[in-house]
Input
Amino acid sequence: MPVRPSGITNASFAPWIVALVFLALAAWLTFFSARPDLGPTVSAALIEQADIRPEPRRHVLGEPAAIPMGGYSLRCMECHRFFQSPPVERRILTQHTHIVLRHGQNTRCFNCHDRADRGKLIRYDGTRLGFDQVPRLCSECHGTVYRDWERGTHGKTLGSWDPASGKQRRLACHECHDPHAPAYPDYVPLPPPNTLRMGEQGSGHSAGIDSEHGQAESATLGGSGHDSPLMHRSSMPRGTKEPTE
Amino acid sequence: MTTPTSATTDVRIWDGPSADAPQPRRSFLRSAVAGAAGLAAFAAALSPLKDLDVMELADPQAFLQKHYKEMTPAEIEVALERIRNKVEARYGVRPDIRDLRPQAGVEFAYALNLSRCIGCRKCVYACVAENNQSRSPQIQYIRVVEMPRGTLDLERGNHHYDRPRVPDNDHYYMPVQCHQCANPPCVKVCPVEATWKEPDGVVVIDYDWCIGCRYCEAACPYWARRFNFAEPTLPKEELNPTMSYLSNRPRPRGVMEKCHFCLQRTREGRMPACLEACPTGSRKFGNLLDPTSEVSQILKTKRVFVLKEEVGTLPRFFYYFDERYPSAHDENVDDPRLPTSPAPEARP
Amino acid sequence: MKTYLTFLIRCFRLSFVGDWRYYGWMALLSVTALFGLNAYCKQMVFGLATTGMTDQVSWGLYIANFTFLVGMAAAAVMLVIPVYIYRNEELHDLVIFGELFAVAAILMALLFVTVDLGRPDRFHHLLLRFNFPISMLTWDVIVLNGYIVLNLHICGYLIYCAYRRRKPSKAFYIPFVFIAIVWAISIHTVTAFLYSGLGGRPFWNSAVVAPRFLASAFAAGPAFLILSLSVLAQFTTYQVPPKAFMTLRNTVAIALSISMFLLGSEMFTEFYTDSAHGASAKYLFFGLHGRHALVPWIWSAIALNLVAMLLLYLPISRKLPVLQAACVMLIVGIWIEKGMGMIVPAFIPTPLGEIVEYLPTLNETLVTMGIWAGGLLIYTILVRVTVPVLTGRLTYDQEFSVATDMRSPSVAATPEAHS
Output
């Protein structure tokens, strides 16, 4: 840079110092300038495909129901095609929760199952239905839900969103609800989000730090305050530790 | 600094030369050394760029690619081929990527039954798997908020609940994702029109056009948009190879992304992934213009509300209730004999 | 054309000339700027993950500084108005320094937006598909770039005329001066509308944001000019009319008072109403659910502003050191109030009620400091070139005349000497 000779006042040493400063800076930036800390790498919560599929519906009785008998596991009709069950009064205005199969003691089987043919269901008016017509049976008592189900506002529909496509399949009642314990079962929730590049920042990016972080988060947030409705459980603050530069 | 020094020559810095001019040659040498040192420092300052993926940034095809709406079908095919090659190079899978267009006479809408949702978060992870979201840093389009009964104040919700079992009886669960507003503030604010509303009602993003200013993220009242602060990563074996241009193709760093109602599925008639994963049937999807569709039926017959109606966004995502809360059933059993009596097993 | 090129070359050379203090100052700025450049290069490589921003708090230090600097740039007109509307000819030359600062401030503001982009390599998309007039950001792009051109034209023309020893033709700059006055208000209004137009952020969605921005800008901008003019007065032969300091002081005092009043109005509305929309304000001023990272900052800002306001109304601030102290306090106060106190809390809590706090990272801070250093570097060079031209030492005829004018600059510098 040609500087006019008369241009510098009192400063003949200044350029040397400036040069030194710049050289020191160059050395610093080249050798000491660290990779910035991007925060903890969140190890992906490993979600198996099975986890995101709906669970099997029947959970109280086996499918099909079987009765242990003299070392054998027998299905109803294996005996009852020969032996008629004793007649019982049909009481339909009762609930059917948590039904446990205790042979000879269950008294409500024939509210829904046909006494003569366990392969059939029976409505109160005596109409026999196949197992492919479950909703019609349930509709006897659960009229409003059946109405919703018919409209598509209750229950799950798979296939196409377009009713006209013909590819829509609406799951029947028993595909989601266990008829012998229809209340919906509890689930283990999948892991809470950890979408933040924050929390306690470690020096490295190992998976161990991530899992620790995840546990800490769930311990402080999930565990502590779910009794108080005012308790606000939000995510962890960003760590105060700065990345070393 | 405030009291002026008396010697006038000392205080003059800028406004003139001095009489004792230095020798020209030495002056030149000094300046050259200082300049060279400055250049060295400048080069050193730029040194981190050596790690930059230059091929990524300097890909002329990507650089010259036009806005989605301006591309001819042939140009879109070129872009798709470029994406196929890039995905194959990175993930070892040749994706089935297409440019799916909206169907005529279709406006998508979503309905979610708050009485039925149990907060299991299966939808969240089904979405991640379907839409090739980054696993680290984690990006999720759906946020399930655990809300205390009796309030809609989201500030009282918990995003990080981690119970052994859900649902908790004192809470209800409110999943939030992009509401695909009919009057979307995010679209309004985008300076480069990288995001827009499609004829079927879905708000989409051209990931190759977004400049990453995050104005849309600030504008969204539903916190539905996500930004790729770092390079998104997902394991090769978890890549979903069925893609479409405006939806679940892998995103680059530095751009926005968000829920798009699984365009790659729904524009072909299928259901969104979150709906398929929902074990309770709380999620409903369909065509608003078809009166027989499930969402139309819900809007007609159920108690429906939208989140933050007061901000005027006209969401296409509706929440509704059933007449009865599902877990509010009483625990009475029809046959009192059975669960209580320790009757011995009958052995005929 | 050739003379103009000579002018530019001379200016360029001049910017490398000075005594050891000049070299020290410039070296400090260069080193800081290079640190910032280095940090930005890292951000280019690793992405915005190098910053403290998250999906929850998606704008931070960069946009906060952007907002502040747009205000500083707008405030340059606070010198123009007395000169051209009230015909206060004494301050005529000072307009140039204000507008030079406007140029530097806008450059910094544009740099802050650029470093905030996730894909700066796609900047050309703005030219290809410009969402005007729907997106307020496009308005901002237009007014900011327009403003920089306007100011470069006005001060460039005046300086070049002084260099050529010509009387500037009024037709070439007076109309632009008046456009610039309106334009300056527009740049900050548009920047305020950027935020206040978002219905999803109740903290911003307030009509008082634009007036607040203008008032605080018209306090901070002239305060910065007071500081830079007092440096000029101290270290150059350039004579700053003492009246300039007093005019600016009055401006600052009144603007700061209006700014504080508007802040109070905002606080009243938020806290007396006490609705769910006040969550961000509660977080800012008192903390929310045990999170209160910004509380000390905002109260420091309010305290600084109040003390500065008090000082400015007292006769004691007719003394330059006191005036300077008040200016520094209010610049810092407004920087906090408008930057971290305006941008960050709007994101806390998120629209879904999640509370995530924001803390800038070191890398982000370095980039920010680098841009400030770069901007001040530019401003210093601009002023360094302008002063000899205005004092007649660098003209068309004589490149650097040996100092003919040896009168002590300091005599005229302090305001009390002439008032």
Notes: Chain C touches chain A through 48 residues (CB under 8 Å). The domain at 2-398 of chain C is CATH 1.20.1630.10 (Formate dehydrogenase/DMSO reductase fold).
